UniProtKB/TrEMBL annotation:
One of its GO terms (molecular function) is metalloendopeptidase activity. This is Peptidase family M23. Pfam families: Peptidase_M23 (PF01551). PROSITE patterns: TAT. PANTHER family: MUREIN HYDROLASE ACTIVATOR ENVC, PEPTIDASE-RELATED. Residues 62-160 form the M23ase beta-sheet core domain. InterPro entries: Cell_wall_metabolism_enzyme, Dup_hybrid_motif, M23ase_b-sheet_dom, TAT_signal. Coiled coil: none annotated.
Length: 428
């Protein structure tokens, strides 16, 4: 944000193995024709403050996207980059001068990646997002995010969403299924359109997708032709994590900042907490331990917390983890392993000692804005990450070599399961 008023704190949320982000989808008026040579690189992120919201508080306008510090920022169009390290309340700012006379500005950066005067093509990385309060380059920002706006040839600030031809980037997008044993060919899953998705394999082998659209939760099962049915009693949901328990499913949702549990037997929601004290969170990832204990890992203000069903949901902070944006949890043989994104990089830690390790190949970190992890039957741990709309796969038995999954682009979130002897991804 480029003003000095206090803004709504952003929430970055994770589903069970799938990252989702809390935000709103807003319109900008009648859609115009798409502009050749330009695109919106940020459709996988939430709008945490709209153009109208900026104007209402006295700003000249902008779009705020919630994203972890260090997220790589692609150029919305080709042009020449100029870096401004002292843009007042905007902090570190990268400005792309396009050949048509327009300019694109990225504010509150944590770092620049190209030199002044560098010509870039559409999609080239031009900076790293920032916005952590008080950090170098953050300006007046009160939370990690990107402020994005454009200027027309006369210098007037304009809404980039209107310029690019339409409404706000779709928070609700088509869900696709992609399987390793089919050559990673993505197939749309019926008519499921969602802003968040969490997939689970039920005990009977049925694949089930739980999705969030307009705050409501929907369920679609592979053995019912993916008919998408609304789950009762759930509204105002901003994040979801699903786990298979017994012959059914248990959902953990975040509603109005608090954590709720409900099961497929009756879908009656219960507030999760210790001695009547709710668990407040921005993100959640749940696991079922081998002894039957349900455990939820939540993120609040960058810290990770653990609460277990066999301990009355006492909410305890996980040591050694801070500045966390998203979390994905997996469990095997009584040990839980967490994958977190911190400052844009992927880290692994386990309940053995909660010591975090940077995940990467030969010392090269894996950078991502979304992550979903799974255990293969042979014990191999696999992480699927999203970066700049592409999906990558890294496995523990291959030294975490990070390989791009083919055929997938424009992805905002991923949820991974292992079913019928293969890895299956659900993306949106």
């Amino acid at each position: 944000m480029d003003g000095i008023d206090r803004r709504t704190f952003l929430r970055v949320t994770a589903t069970a193995g799938a990252v989702a982000v809390t935000g709103v989808t807003v319109g900008t008026g009648a859609a115009a024709a798409a502009v050749p040579g330009f695109y919106n690189p940020f459709t996988g992120y939430p709008i945490t403050e709209t153009w109208e919201g900026h104007l209402a508080r006295g700003s000249l306008g902008g779009i705020d996207y919630g994203m972890p510090v260090g997220t790589r920022l692609p150029a919305a169009g080709g042009g020449v980059v100029y870096n401004d390290p002292d843009n007042g309340t905007g902090g570190y700012t990268a400005v792309i001068h396009h050949d048509n006379g327009y300019k694109t500005q990225y504010l509150h950066l944590s770092g620049f990646v190209v030199a002044n005067g560098t010509r870039v093509a559409m999609g080239d990385i031009v900076g790293l997002s920032g916005g952590y309060p008080g950090a170098p380059g953050s300006g007046s920002s009160t939370g990690p995010h990107l402020h994005w706006h454009m200027n027309d040839p006369s210098g007037t600030r304009i809404n980039p969403l209107a310029f690019l031809g339409g409404d706000a980037p779709a928070g609700d997008t088509q869900v696709f299924e992609t399987a390793h044993n089919s050559g990673w060919q993505p197939l749309p899953v019926a008519s499921i359109v969602a802003s968040k998705v969490s997939a689970v394999l039920r005990a009977d082998g049925t694949k089930i997708i739980y999705s969030v659209r307009d705050g409501y939760v929907y369920e679609a099962a592979s053995n019912a032709g993916w008919r998408n049915l609304r789950v009762p009693n759930l509204a105002g949901v901003s994040a979801i994590s699903a786990i298979a328990v017994g012959s059914g499913v248990v959902l953990y949702t975040i509603r109005s900042g608090a954590l709720w549990e409900c099961a497929s037997g009756d879908w009656v929601p219960f507030c999760v907490g210790y001695n009547g004290s709710p668990i407040y969170a921005d993100a959640v990832s749940a696991v079922l331990r081998s002894d039957g204990t349900r455990i939820v890992y939540t993120v609040r203000d960058g810290a990770v917390f653990e609460a277990a069903s066999n301990a009355g949901w006492r909410n305890l902070r996980v040591p050694n983890l801070d500045s966390v944006a998203v979390v994905s949890a997996i469990s095997r043989n009584g040990i839980t392993t967490l994958y977190t994104i911190r400052a844009g990089a992927l880290w692994e830690t386990s309940s053995v000692d909660w010591r975090p390790y940077a995940v990467g190949y030969n010392g090269s970190p894996i950078y991502a804005n979304a992550v979903s992890a799974l255990h293969r039957p042979d014990g191999t741990r696999i992480v699927y990450t999203v970066r700049d709309g592409a999906v990558f796969e890294a496995a523990s038995n291959a030294g975490w070599r990070n390989l791009r999954v083919p055929n997938l682009g424009g992805v905002g979130a991923v949820s991974a399961i292992y079913a019928s002897g293969t890895e299956i991804l659900y993306t949106r």
